[in-house]
Amino acid sequence: MTIERLVAGVDVGGTNIEVGLVGPDHEVVDRAKSDIPTGGPDAVMGRINELVQSLSEPAAAVGVGFPGVVHRGKVLTVPNLANWFEPVDVGSVLNQMMGVPVAVGNDADVGLLGEWYAGAARGVDNVLGVWMGTGIGGSFILDGRPFNGSRGGAGEIGHIIVRPGGALCGCGRRGCIEAYAGRRMMSRAATELVEAGRTTSLFDLRDQMGKEHLTSRVWARALEDGDPVATELVDLAIETLGIGLGSVVNATDVELVVIGGGFSQKLGQPLADRIGRAAAPWTIRPNPDLRWVRASLGDSSGVVGAASIGRAELRRAG
Amino acid sequence: MTIERLVAGVDVGGTNIEVGLVGPDHEVVDRAKSDIPTGGPDAVMGRINELVQSLSEPAAAVGVGFPGVVHRGKVLTVPNLANWFEPVDVGSVLNQMMGVPVAVGNDADVGLLGEWYAGAARGVDNVLGVWMGTGIGGSFILDGRPFNGSRGGAGEIGHIIVRPGGALCGCGRRGCIEAYAGRRMMSRAATELVEAGRTTSLFDLRDQMGKEHLTSRVWARALEDGDPVATELVDLAIETLGIGLGSVVNATDVELVVIGGGFSQKLGQPLADRIGRAAAPWTIRPNPDLRWVRASLGDSSGVVGAASIGRAELRRAG
Questions:
Q1: CATH number, domain with residue A54
Q2: SS3 letters for A124-190?
Q3: Of A44, A55, A235, B291, which one has the greatest count of Cβ atoms within 10 A?
């Protein structure tokens, strides 16, 4: 009986909160979505509660993926949410608010869990998940189980240093993978190239498509049109990811790299293929069985994975 | 009774084979040592057998650490041993030769096992072991157990790319950690600096100390003397290790880094401290509990760890 119940999976991203009502076979039977309130922790948790309550049926448990370091249910750091400055025990607060078991994890970690339970990584024991969006996130399945590190921080591949002294990253360092391959930093690089006299259709496309930022869809369209600035910056992003992920493959000997996030959804398997080819020269002992594939659940990886930790919490709670 | 028996641990390094007869509390009760024969696999395995037979008491099992990729008892690749060109089932061959259970692992992996069971990493769940010698080896304990990757290749940190297009590495790539911090490549850099007109005491010290190569002891002496070439190259090695290991810490969130190998033995805890300080600026979310310590078993890490896998094999064999 218990296992038949529906569980809510909540994916708190850089700009939206997505909620899915998920069944025991990882099927998403209802959805809700909102932008992220800027009022800090209470506003974000209130919105999560509203979204879950708005679903077509009550959820027996809730799992939440957060864009920050999460350790034992506590959200320790959240670099990209407005007015969120200190650790919050999100699990306890939401549990009190909603009266059902609540589990909280890192967004990249629950995204990979979704792919591992129901998507491109199903049945694979050693997996690196790479999430290409506003920033670059990562997560591991190692030896057949999720690996989160000593304090929940494992998988922070966006800040692997590929070019010391190179491009400035949002984290303040120079030469991180994210400085070249994170969408926010790529947009900044496009702006700088325009200021330096280059021409690009990126910003016109953004306006035509009614977007505030250079979204993945804007980049994909510019690439289709052969825009030279977009092409150059995406080439550099892929080359940089190849070097950095080649190093991660050397260190961890995973057998599968899953590429997810907005960029992956828009550019598809050809993006994963290109990253794999870019990494090959940097891997010390090429594994003929190593595969590079795009996430197969699209924008559902996060809600499915978040629901899976909610369901595990439900089982633990009896 | 079984658990009281003595087990042989064999550490096949870049230049020597070290054998220890190890008791149930990881104590080394006898030792034997030889250089490595250059005649290929049969010669190496024959020498291992001779060394084990030369110990003061018979070994109930044998564990061997090999400098190469080892997967399920097979030595797949051995880049640094003469005339060893193809995969060899070392476990089966030695078992037939010696008539006792034999286990085979990677040298960096068994070295870290030694430190984990009986040295600086005892009781720690997430550990990176770094072995500074002829090359740079690495190994992981993750979530409280050894992590070897999908094909036994995990921990290959020496070929993490820190400076793409930088110094040429022995692996043929440019910019690997090992290109700056492996002793063989550091010696080559010293030779090049001398050819370019710099002066150093390194080669005179080598001759005075009766060594064929610039050993760790030679480097340590030159540093003590304030030799500018040695100082500059060791500074660069530490800076490079800091960047690369900072990236590994970002990706894995380990709580302990153990620095072992010849360099660590000669330069001690101050070397580990310097590497930790060099890594700090590159870690995205500094863990206040992260420690950098030198391997505490000295040149016994490998034989103690090798004996531990031999003992585990003995238990499995009943």
A1: 3.30.420.40
A2: CCCEEEEEECCCEEEEEEECCEEECCCCCCCCCHHHCECCCCCCECCCCCECEHHHHHCHHHHHHHH
A3: A44
